[in-house]
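Standup notes
- DV: blocked on the single-chain target, sequence here:
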Amino acid sequence: MNRCDQVNAKGVLMNSVAAAQGQINFIDLAAQRRRLGVRIDHAIQNVLEHGQYILGPEVTALEQRLAEFTGADHALSCASGTDALAMLLMAWHVGPGDAVFVPAFTFVATAEVAAWLGASVVFCDVKPDTFNLDRQVLRLLFQWQRRLV
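- DV (later): unblocked, structure below
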């Protein structure tokens, strides 16, 4: 912790400007850079030296470590959450004639990918305390959707 940082009453690290304004930083990239900068610089230098910018050894190592960590046989990394959703729905052969139920409170990519694959997007309310799909509403929407088919 440097002299510009302090811990609030809940034990959350804040910089002094945010603390003076009574705000909690969502993310402090400068603090992360101070802590991880040397490791990040070394990793970038390694990639620049071997020149494999796509599917290089770092990707293979990440996928292996993720598989080990999760206990899966394999792990597949991708460029974004949107790509991850697309790969999952494609693996399930989701497309025209299918309905994909998504939370009404979500990032646009959740619905975008289903529509991109030709599926119907059905928005479902979320529980206000968790922001997860409301199972009772989902059940009603599923029954309603089945009647339409």
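- Follow-up: The helical segments are 16-20, 29-50, 57-70, 81-91, 108-116, 135-148.
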